[in-house]
Amino acid sequence: MDTSNHKLTMRLTPVLLGIHIVALPLYPHMPLLVLLATAILTLWMLLIVSGRISQPGRFVVFMLTVMVVAVLMKSFGTIFGQQPGSAMLLLLSFLKLFEMKSTRDIAIVIFMGFFLVASKFFYSQSLLIAIHVFIVVVYLTSLLIVFSDRLGTTRFNARMYKSLRMIIQAVPLMLILFVLFPRIPGPLWGLPKDAQTATTGLSDEMSPGSINRLVGSGEVAFRVKFSDDPPMRSELYWRGLALPNYDGKTWRIENAPSYAQPLLVVPDDEDTRYTYTVMLEPHNQRWLYALESMIEYEGLLVVTREMQLLTRNKVMDVMSYTLRSDTRVENRGLFEPERRKNLALPDQLNSKSVAFARKLFNESNRDSRLYITNVLKHFREKSFFYTLSPPLLGESAMDDFLFGTRRGFCEHYASAFVYLMRAAGIPSRVIVGYQGGAMHPFDDYMIVRQSDAHAWAEVWFVDEGWVRVDPTAAVSPTRIENGIGNAGLERDLLPAILISDNAIFQRARFMWDSFHNHWNQWVVGYNRNRQKELLELLGFYNASSGDLVMWLVVLMTCAGSLVAWWVVRKAPAKQKDVIRLYYDRFCRTLEKAGIVHYPNEGASEFMARVVKILPAKQHELSMITGDYERLRYGSDNNEKRIKRYIRAVRRFRARH
Amino acid sequence: MHAPDTKIRNAATAILQHAADNIGRIILGKDDQIRLALTCLVARGHLLIEDLPGVGKTTLAHAIAQVMGLGFQRIQFTSDLLPADVLGVAVYDRERTVFEFHQGPIFSHFILADEVNRATPKTQSALLEAMEEYQVTVEGETRDLPQPFFVIATQNPTHQIGTYPLPESQLDRFLMRLHLGFPDSLAERELLQGEDRRDMIEHIKPVLDGGKLISIQKQAGNIHVSNALLDYVQSLLDFSRNSPMFEFGLSPRGGIALLSSAKALALIDGKEFVLPEHIKQVLPAVVNHRLVKTSDELETKKQTAADFISASVPVP
Predict the structure, then answer these.
(1) In which domain, by residue range, is B59 found?
(2) Domains in chain B: how many in total?
(3) Do B224 and A604 touch (CB under 8 A)?
(4) Which of A581, A633, A636, A638 best probes binding to B when mutated, by most B CB atoms within 10 angstroms?
(5) Per-residue pLDDT averaged across B195-224, rounded?
(6) Is the N or the C terminus of chain A less surrounded, counting Cβ atoms within 10 Å?
(7) Are A604 and B275 a contacting pair at CB < 8 A?
(8) Is the domain of B264 the same as that of B189?
(9) What interface predicted TM-score (ipTM) does this complex get?
(10) CB of A602 within 8 Å of any CB in chain B?
(11) What whole-number distance in Å separates Cα of residue A174 and Cα of residue A189?
């Protein structure tokens, strides 16, 4: 290894550090094998940097490349796709460090770092990641400054400041691009399958434990902005899915959803109508949540017969939609096949429950309403408990629950209630969604968390249609009225945000949520509609993509000129006076003849050098140089001399 | 620009050129150093010559003094030299019953302080203070030194036992530091063939006297300095301060030194204004002893601090 090369490798520590800083948010998404490879390459590189071992030869680097591909194949089975792609970029960035020959190679690694930065957005587009990206970009730019400053004259602080200034100068351009670039509906490119990683949220089936598993999570499910006052807490039922199919353990959705529309009866007066916008966190599912019962929705959405609101694609980014609901709507439609489906019970595993239902129904004079009251009374009075840690149920789950454990969470009660209804011949189904939500203490929206996940029941009456019955309310009325945090549940199983008594902590959490919400609304969720809204706010109506591109070009040019002016402004005008400009011209003339004027060279020094090459021009050269020095460094500003000087420079030719 | 000014300036240039020629006849092949030494004298600065014994340090000092027509005193610094030996001492006069001050060798226009690094720091500072203040305080009484006052100090670079090399902060008191170096073969041949330098010095006719030197020094102060040139000086200073190569960079005093030397050199050159080339020519002598390098990276490239700075800063 020659010494100059060694000097180069010695300067690699900040670059190595840079790649690690860039890749930090990627590490949690990387398989162990890739992390191990990263660690080994880092250690190896550190040994080289410290001069303990020499840089590996071409063959070794080639073998390492083969091994990197092997690691990727072993971890992912492919080198294509989002995760393998970013893993490959990461490992290759490290590998590139092994073949440093010139500063140009370092520049390549730094540019790879910029790509790596972009790949982080595959995993998260949160505000934190954006802040991290900003810091990383400033750092990488400062590295570029270091390696292009061959004299090594700038100190760390000066470099960081310079880099920060450069990035801030780029911000107006970024904003213009962000605001005006035509938005393409849907994702820019098809994300590969592995993008659908597990996210917390309700699934399309319900079995004991599936909801109380969610209650421990303080994560936000969605945020809601009401255009007027929100309804009372006990009316806040956010409907997700109807689950009519039961196999003795699990409730499932209708497999072939019918697109026949529900038959809704909407009251004439508008006392109980609410218009609101839901900002849904990505949950990788097609269904959306709506306040019961929804009466108007946006055009791209679909409503099923079961009153489920669906989108065309799975929700992978923050999605916002505006709806209108009325809490007094009646849903009257019931076809015969639906009726049969909503009465079906699995094989007679729970004979005790069925017998109990029939007995109670007869005791209630076969009156559905009285029967429901009696069932709820049974839950209330026969020492049933509302708990987050219910005991496990056996084969005959209903019998075990109703006559054995009597301890359960909302899914147990909803499930048992629907079972008892069906056993008595009343069509009914389980509904899952969220119940409740807390207004943000100092911002104008409501937060619904995963811990608000809930299950309830719907019962069919001939005269009223589908009616919501929440058996949990019978067991624990406070759950519905005061929220999950105040339902007397085991505190250690609830998320800290709900039960913390620390006011500062609470406030900080809400503040952060508020930031996050604005970020989601205006940055991550900046889609076609938002762009349209914003442009209309600025007075542009019906802007086509072509108009946008035109505006983009115009504004970019303006902003670019502005930034350029800001940069150039620093250089005082007097430095570029006429005398100097003509001298520059003189130097350019000579440069074309192959004689380059060095920036650190005085005019006389330069002349002495030029005269040796062009002895025939000595007179002209010495006249121009003499006049230049006199005009620029002397106190002489004789008009005649200036004219003579300018004329001489104009006439000057390096060759005959 | 008034004609009489030009005339006076041209006369000053002619005298200085004449002086340089005369000295050049004695010190052979060292025209650049002679020019810089004269520059230093015209810029009212003191000169430090750092080189091996026997390359002509004393001869140079002697020749300059002779040409300038100035009273010359040589002080050989030794480890037992006391401040009083330099400055002078008050002796009690028994007959008149008063203390009478006996001036030391410092009361002279032109001092050659030979091998300053052999004296103790106490004696060194006595000299350096006199150089800085142009006055001497002995026994509570302040006495002005004669004007013009010029010190050439010599220092051996070899680190011998019992020497006290001048610290960086004191090196700053010298406007310039020069190295003489060995003469080239042609000059050496002439030196070997020619007559004794000592005799030659005695035969040199002085070209000016103290009064004329002072007026020439004033002339140098009037040389025009353009904004473009000040930009250049400032970017040199900025560069030295921001570069990680140097511990602290040049002080404002360093900047003033640079400019006054360049003005003096412009006068010697016969220019009515300072050119960037003048700055570049005085740069090594003025800044190399003022900068503390952080690493020996420059040494390995055989570059001095001044080379590095002037190669890095563009001329405006």
Answers:
(1) 1-208
(2) 2
(3) no
(4) A633
(5) 83
(6) C
(7) yes
(8) no
(9) 0.81
(10) yes
(11) 21
